[in-house]
Amino acid sequence: MEQVGTTVMYAEERQQAILALARSKGRVDVVALAEEFSVTTETIRRDLTVLERAGTVRRVHGGAMPVERLGFEPELAARDAVMTEEKQRIAKAALEELPADGSVIVDAGTTTSRFVQLLPTDRELTVIVNSPPHAAVLATRPNLTVIILGGRVRGRTLATVDDWVLRPLADLWVDVAFMATNGCSIERGLTTSDQAEAAVKRAMIASSRRRVLLADRTKIGHDHLVRFGDLADIDVLITDSGLDTDLAADMAAAGPEVVRA
Questions:
Q1: Which end of the chain is least crowded, N or C, by CB within 10 Å?
Q2: Where are the domains of the chain?
Q3: Distance CA 160, CA 170 (A)
Q4: Is pLDDT above 80 for 166?
Q5: Which residues partner with 59 through β-bridges?
Q6: Which of 7-11, 168-172, 210-214, 246-250 is least confident?
Q7: Terminus-to-terminus CA distance in the chain, angstroms?
Q8: CATH for 11-66, options being 3.40.50.300, 1.10.10.10, 1.10.150.120, 2.40.30.30
Q9: CA 128 to CA 172: how far, in whole Å?
Q10: Using one digit for the tens of pLDDT, what is the confidence trace for 23-51?
Q11: Domain named HTH deoR-type: which ranges (predicted)?
Q12: Which residues have C-beta within 8 Å of that of residue 153, sequence separation ≥ 6?
C-alpha cells in the first residue's frame, strides 16, 4: 500500500490505474508513472511485472504497452489466471441460456471452460466444441453427445481452426452458441487476435439461432486485430458486475441484452 498525496492507494488499485493509462495512451513510461503515483521506479517496475504476468501489458524499454497495441496474445495459462471469480460468475449465469434439450456450440476460451465444467447432468444435449480440453471434460458425461470440430490446434489457445473446422460448421444449425472474445466494443464489435480463430467464430455465429457472449469487463471497450462480428449479432452479453453501468447501457443500446453477473 502506497500513499499518494493524502490518498492511500493499494497496489492492485495502482496497477489497474496504470493499465488504464497504458490503454488510453498506448504506452506508459516508468519514470513518469513513478512521478504520477509518488512511488519509486522499483515499485512501478514491480507493478508492470504483475501486469505482464497477468497478460495485460508487455514490457518494453523504459515502460510498457498494452497487449492490444502489440497484437500480442497472452498464453492460455496467463489469461486463465485473470478475473477468476468474475469468470466463474459469468459461467454460472450463462447456464440460464441453456436449452432444455437440443444442441449448443461452446467456443474455446477461459470463461467458456468454466461454463463447460458447470454443464448440468439432467439434460440431454449435443455439445459441439472446437477445444480438445472442453471435449475431454465433457466426454465422460453420459447425458451429453459431444462433437469436436477437428483441425489444426493453435498452441496458444488450444482451439481447433482452419478448413476442417469451417466445413462442418457450414452444415450445422444449433440452438445456442456460447461465444468467447478477446475484445468487444461499440465501435468495432467483436474482435480477436488471430485470423484463423476469427473465421471459426464467425462461422459459429452463422450456425446458431441464438448467440450468447461470455466476456468479463476487461474485454469490454477494447479492440484486437481481427473483427469477427457486430454487437448486433449477439443476443445476450454476459459480463461481470464490475462493468460500468453507463457502458453497460451503451452496449445494450447497440443490440444485445446485457447481464452483469
A1: N
A2: 11-66, 76-260
A3: 15
A4: yes
A5: 64
A6: 7-11
A7: 29
A8: 1.10.10.10
A9: 10
A10: 878 889 999 999 999 999 999 999 999 88
A11: 11-66
A12: 132, 159, 160, 161
